[in-house]
């Protein structure tokens, strides 16, 4: 056994859980088995953690923001992992992962994940680390309409196995005022390789609106095996002209904005094996002239939505189901839902069905497929949801 294998075996035994293969989707492309080195792991526990602790398994941290500060203080190379135990985390400040002296790679990633993942035999929905956003929405620490729970301002990041809820606020308490939280964000337009996998984004339009699960600039945004339940918007692929994006095996239920939002990103967008159901619009298209602008910008002025340019890019929608939605496509920007209907011919449907029939979901939380399409239904057979196996 070589030194690397010995370290891997020791870490696995100490942790008592299976070793994560970060970059699940990306590792399949290279055939590389990705592991986390012992000594580069921080543990979080919302019940027993203290932010002055070392961050070891027996002496965990309490908050994701402190874990981000610890990551940012490191230097050199090699993978790092931030492991969240089950429980409820109050996200009271933005956790900004932006190490200045440490470089990650496609194989040696920064991984922020649940201790027990959905494919683990001991997993159930109650074991998902639950992030409730309690950030200050006004005052000197607020960032205007862009209030993030987590910012990943570095390359080669995986976020896996978390439950991310909205904020208990009124989204627009008065005309022209926006109060919103974005659970996951990335602002760097030159950044690459952000993977969000096996995460549940859930909200309620009145009590805890989840305005937008993922708002990310740059290239290589890979969202797979996620569930978006009653969120307003799911993912914004924000940088026009960027390449290498994908959305696969995701279930979108009840999006009262739209099921996916693309700026004029490249047509290599790999959109397949998804179900978008029981919502408002399927797709928001943001034209090249507006790409990179704040997607909320249209809501802050007169309330009017700029007319979209003629679509120059088309996207393939492969092996998917679009069911029970009100409309197919609209223009951005202006996330106040002052959208304009547009022709959906920029979407090329390949082995994809569009139907008015809604998708039935599992509402028994004792079942592993809670908030997934019912098994043995058309939607259930596509392979969407939190489970990769």
The overall strand count is 29
Strand order of the largest sheet: 1-3-7-10-13-16-19-22-25-28
Q: Largest beta sheet, briefly?
A: 10 strands, parallel
Instruction: Calculate the terminal CA-CA distance, rounded to whole Å.
Output: 29 Å
Question: Would you mind describing this structure in some detail?
Answer:
The protein is mostly beta strands and 389 residues long. Helices cover 7% and strands 30% of the residues. It has 3 helices and 29 strands. It has a 10-stranded parallel sheet, covered by helices on one side. A 9-stranded parallel sheet has the order 4-8-11-14-17-20-23-26-29, with no helix packed on it. An 8-stranded parallel sheet has the order 5-9-12-15-18-21-24-27. The longest helix is centred in the first third of the chain and has 13 residues, at 3-15. The protein is globular.
């Amino acid at each position: 056994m070589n030194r690397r294998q010995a370290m891997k075996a020791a870490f696995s035994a100490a942790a008592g859980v299976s070793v994560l293969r970060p970059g699940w989707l990306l590792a399949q492309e290279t055939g590389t088995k990705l592991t986390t080195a012992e000594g580069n792991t921080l543990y979080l526990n919302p019940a027993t953690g203290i932010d002055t602790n070392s961050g070891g398994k027996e002496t965990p941290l309490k908050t994701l923001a402190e874990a981000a500060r610890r990551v940012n203080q490191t230097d050199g190379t090699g993978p790092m992992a931030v492991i969240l135990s089950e429980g409820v985390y109050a996200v009271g400040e933005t956790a900004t992962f932006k190490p200045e002296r440490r470089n990650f790679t496609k194989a040696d990633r920064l991984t922020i994940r649940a201790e027990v993942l959905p494919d683990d035999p001991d997993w159930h929905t109650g074991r998902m680390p639950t992030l409730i956003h309690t950030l200050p929405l006004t005052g000197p620490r607020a960032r205007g309409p862009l209030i993030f729970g987590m910012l990943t301002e570095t390359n080669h990041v995986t976020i896996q196995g978390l439950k991310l809820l909205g904020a208990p606020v009124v989204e627009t308490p008065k005309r022209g005022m926006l109060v919103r939280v974005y659970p996951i964000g990335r602002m760097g337009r030159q950044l690459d390789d952000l993977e969000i996998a096996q995460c549940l984004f859930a909200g309620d339009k009145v009590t805890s609106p989840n305005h937008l699960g993922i708002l990310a600039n740059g290239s290589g945004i890979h969202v797979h095996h996620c569930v978006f339940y009653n969120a307003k918007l799911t993912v914004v692929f924000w940088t026009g002209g960027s390449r290498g994006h994908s959305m696969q095996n995701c279930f979108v239920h009840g999006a009262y904005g739209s099921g996916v939002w693309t700026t004029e990103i490249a047509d290599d967008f790999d959109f397949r094996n998804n179900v978008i159901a029981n919502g408002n619009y399927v797709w928001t298209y943001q034209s090249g002239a507006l790409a990179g602008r704040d997607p909320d910008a249209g809501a802050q002025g007169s309330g009017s939505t700029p007319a979209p340019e003629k679509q120059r890019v088309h996207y393939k929608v492969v092996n998917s189901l679009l069911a029970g939605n009100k409309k197919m496509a609209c223009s951005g920007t202006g996330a106040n839902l002052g959208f304009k209907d547009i022709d959906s011919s920029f979407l090329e449907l390949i082995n994809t069905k569009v139907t008015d029939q809604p998708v039935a979901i599992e509402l028994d939380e004792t079942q592993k497929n809670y908030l997934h399409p019912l098994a043995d239904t058309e939607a259930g057979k596509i392979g969407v949801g939190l489970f990769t196996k």
